[in-house]
Amino acid sequence: MSQICPSDFKVDKERIAKAVREILAAVGENPDREGLRETPNRVARMYEELFSGMRQNPRSLLQTVFTEKYEEMVVLRDITFNSICEHHLMPFEGKAHIAYLPDGKVVGLSKLARASWMPMPCARRCRNGSPRNWPM
Fold first, then answer.
1. Could you report the per-residue pLDDT of 16-63, keeping only the tens digit for each?
2. I need a surface site. Which of 14, 28, 46, 60 has the fewest CB within 10 A?
3. Which domains, ranges and CATH numbers included, belong to the chain?
């Protein structure tokens, strides 16, 4: 399983903004141009949000269960998620599906959906594209 960042870890937005400014200059843009002036800061805030799942442990959401005599499969479909391709640092979106046999204990559906946004198969962290390679 991949390491989850410590909960006190903070994204270095200033460092990201400086790097984005350098990228803009490297591709021939003027980072001081009116339309680009705030772009490095916007990109830094975007990365902070997109990587927010790295500081959360999905198990913490799944601690609250309810005892329920229910023996059929619980299915939650079409959970929209977004992540970052680790090869190109490009954002992408997808849909996740979760199914489980409750065995006398059920988890709230909203908790399952939120867990899919964290460092599980559909996390807000870098992904190498293949679900087979995502940490569980």
1. 999 999 999 999 999 999 999 999 999 999 888 888 777 777 777 788
2. 28
3. 10-50 (1.10.286.10), 56-136 (3.30.1130.10)
